[in-house]
Amino acid sequence: MTMRRAAFPIRARWQRDALPGFGPGLGLTLFWLAGLVMLPMVALIARPWGEGLHSGLQAFAHAAHDRRILSALGVSFRSALIAALVDLVPGLLIAWALARSDIPGRRLIDMLVDLPFALPTAVVGITMATLYGPNGWIGGPLGRLGLRIAFTQTGIVLAIMFVGLPFVVRTVAPVLRNLPRDAEDAARILGANRMQVLLRVILPALYPALVTAFGMAFARGIGEYGSVIFIAGNQPFHTEIAPLLIVIRLQEYDTQGATLIGLVLVMISLLSLALISLLRRHLSHGTQGGV
Amino acid sequence: MARFAFAALIYLLMGIMVVLPPVMVLAMALSHGMGAALATFADPDALSAIRLTIIMTVLTVGVNTIFGVMAAWTLSHFRFPGRNLLIVLIELPLSVSPVVGGLVWLLVFGTQGWWGTALERWGHPIMFAPPGILLATIFVTFPYVTRTLMPMLAHNGRTAEEAAVMLGASLWQVLWHVTLPGARLALVSGVLLTTARAMGEFGAVSVVSGHIPGLTETMPLHIETLYNGYQTVAAFTMAALLVLMAAIVVAVRTFLERGQNRTEKTA
Amino acid sequence: MVKVRSITRRGLLHATMATGGAMAFPPLRAWAATGLLNVSYDPTRELYQDIDRSFSRQWAQTHGNSPVQIRTSHGGSGAQARSVLEGAPADVVTLGLAYDIDILAQHGLLATDWQGRLPHNSTPFTSTIVFLVRKGNPKNIHDWPDLIRDGVQVITPNPKTSGGARWNYLAAWGWALRQPGGTADTARAYLKTLFAHVPVLDTGARGATNSFVQRGLGDVLLAWEDEALLAARDIGPDQFDIVVPPITILAEPPVAVVDRNVQAHGTTDVAQAYVTYLFSDEGQKIGARHYFRPVNPTILDANRDRFPDTATFDIASLGGWTRVQKDHFADGGIFDSIYSR
Q1: FRET pair for A7, CA 20 to 30 Å: which of A213, B123, B136, C151?
Q2: CB-side exposure of A166: number of CA atoms within 13 Å?
Q3: Is the distance from CB of A72 to CB of A240 less than 8 angstroms?
Q4: What is the CATH number of the domain that holds B71?
Q5: Which residue, among C232, C183, C180, C228, has the nearest Cα to C208 in the 3D structure?
Q6: Cα–Cα distance between A220 and A224 in angstroms, integer?
Q7: Do B216 and B128 touch, CB atoms closer than 8 A?
Q8: For residue B15, is it within any domain?
Q9: Are residues C86 and C218 in the same domain?
């Protein structure tokens, strides 16, 4: 969110304001936020400590040694990481096509890119499972070549890549469009070829946007459930993702266990986002302007 | 030549990654002919899943739009201590797994949750009933309106609103006649994003639903039930309907944004 | 610049709020009074589709053409019982094993003597646990010991959430106890080895069938006889064979009316009629058609060719559900200790 550039007239805090509505606006915002987000989140955070600090710590220690929980978190983390990284390549290419090229059908592509974001995850799930399954349009031919995708970790990565793609395109395309051309022109005048311009001038200017895009795709991917469970084999220690383990624990009536995994999952994704935002700030320093 | 290769590469990427899945949904739905596909909707459970999805989506969009407008207004027009924290908290649901978005409500209203026993005595269950589905859907789609609206309001600034206040307009009048018309497209865009996510929500809803056909099954949950019951055609027909709804949302959004770009260019 | 233009013509907010108000919850709750909810376990999807249709036709004929709408939900038996505990408004439960209904009785949802209220211990159909293998039985699996041979992968659902999985587990346990020199220790060792051969634990029997049938996982699926026959005859006629082990467990999935909910919904009569219908000749015949063994001996005899003969033992021989549940499936029980962490 870049909020800084336009909005505020500079003035002291709490000064009387010409605009009405601060009180009711803030009140309503806080009310809704408290009731619909904070209340349940506090329930999540408080739950492990319900029987005292000691038993809470014990529960965490126990979870930290539970191989099944660790491997489920590992599968989610790794798949989201790989998917978000790999997504950068097609995402950047499609963003380029939208922002800098004049290929026919650009407007259609522009519209289609949002589709993975709007498609319900369960639909994505059964579709990917069928498409890449042993008898699917893609899975069938690949299977004859000896490649299995459905019900393996590759399948999980593909499903997360699908839902993550729009985040990359939508973050990178506007930056690419607004990139000042003078640096490119200068580089070209100084005799750089197209590849050099791309790698030395354009790509570095895109780093902050690429990092943001990666972060968004990753955050979406690590918690992804519906699009993954149908194509993942859901085998413990192998293709079982953390959100599925939460659901399994709930069905076993092990609310405590489910809560612990949920809490750790939230912490991982917040921590990753914080790291990414640090990284982006670091990168923006290097380039003029930035995002 | 390079240009041709580039175009071919983009078409290939888009084709495999984005276009193929929805096309396959349609192909699977129609694999036994139109009649078999339409037979899906003769099932009362399918119809009630569609109805529940529509109700949940409408209510979710209503709640999150009212909230989102107020939050965006407050956050973009005023500076106050804790403002940044508030933005972070509002965006929190985006980085929470949908499954957790359902789980957290179980911890409040479930039988093992904070208020579960009290609710049980009262006799109106929230979890495993439509109110729980609503809460989970609201949680998951909470930030979208605020997120899309806030930059637009910030960009528009507050001059016009201040002028309206000088002329004697009330808060409500300012919001309704000045602020929102100025950010109409951002608002609609946020509402459409919320709609798309709300009608397709699966993980959060699946945790709090109870999966009762005809009562607590939304369209995505009903698709799962059909799929597990080997009713492939019905599952994909239902999915095709959702794909269609999603496609409409995306198309409307794109056209609105294009309209806006055009007016901006001519202005 | 900002264009000052109003969007009052039935603005977005108005529209959403109005629609929201008009379509509130009452219509959703209303059916609970005129309809009937049967919360069932996983492999009964096809069975109850038929039963529901045929019962509501019969009910309409005998009750002045006032039709009753029956809905049935499916999932792992334990998970389903828990959703009823959490408030799913079940009028009737038809679960995978008696313990899951006992839990509901313990929480006051129905009388604790529920199992004596209907004939045959409230069990309209029985079943057994059999092996489903790939066509031609390439791994040559015929009996329980074959399951733990090297290179054999076994598919069975999670006993903590699935009724069928508990029957699978107990069938194996009972077989091991019956071997020469069999004790609880040897049985535990057998099951530990068995579960080391299980690559995936789905939460319900249908999920496990999907893993075996559609995902192609495993060499043998431990399954309800009805689920196995459905898969072998209807889903993949040339892909699977059924192997009936020489000895297996007699699975008794019972049914009951949920007293507290039918009183609240005013559905006592129709719920009672529904569970009674399961024991009627039509109900029994429909069951046989879906590969459930009818308890009515005449109808069972008429369908002998559908159900292979095999020796069985029942849950009572293992000490009854309460004890079995506590020893094996409760937190920290035998299953927890054998499923490797």
Answers
A1: A213
A2: 16
A3: yes
A4: 1.10.3720.10
A5: C228
A6: 6
A7: yes
A8: no
A9: no
Q: Which pair of tokens denotes residue C261?
A: 């909910």
Q: Residues C229, C333: one domain?
A: yes
- Which residue matches tokens 């530990």? C192
User: Which residue in the block uniquely carries the two structure tokens 């519209």?
Assistant: A111
In a domain? residue C9: no
Q: Is the dihedral of CA C82, C83, C85, C91 positive or negative?
A: negative
Count of positions (residues) in chain B: 267
Same domain, C110 and C163: no
pLDDT along chain C (341 residues), means of 10: 39 40 40 74 92 92 82 89 86 95 92 95 96 95 95 92 93 95 95 91 86 86 93 84 94 96 91 96 96 95 90 93 92 83 49
For the segment A189-216, what is each residue's pLDDT rounded down to a tens digit? 888 888 888 888 888 889 999 999 999 9
Q: Which of C86, C107, C202, C214 should we substitute to test contact with A (largest number of A Cβ atoms within 10 Å)?
A: C214
Query: Which of B80, B97, B170 lies at the smallest CB-CB distance from A225?
Result: B97
The answer to whether the beta carbons of residues C237 and C245 sit under 8 Å apart is no
Residues in chain C: 341
Q: Who's near A80: CB < 8 A, 6+ residues apart?
A: A160, A217, A218, A220, A221, A222, A224
Instruction: Select the residue from A124, A126, A160 to test the B interface by mutation, using most B Cβ atoms within 10 A.
Output: A126
Alpha carbon of B167 to those of A254, B160, C32, C254: distances in Å? 61, 11, 56, 75
- Could you tell me which chains touch chain B, where touching means 3 or more CB pairs under 8 A? A, C
Decide if C180 is inside a domain: yes
Q: Can you name the CATH fold of A54-117+151-286?
A: MetI-like fold (1.10.3720)
The total of other beta-carbon atoms located within 10 Å of residue A63's CB is 19
Nearest to A151 among C79, C201, C215 (CB): C215
Lowest model confidence (mean pLDDT) among A7-16, A112-121, A142-151, A278-287? A7-16
Return the H-helix or E-strand segment holding C220.
strand C220-224
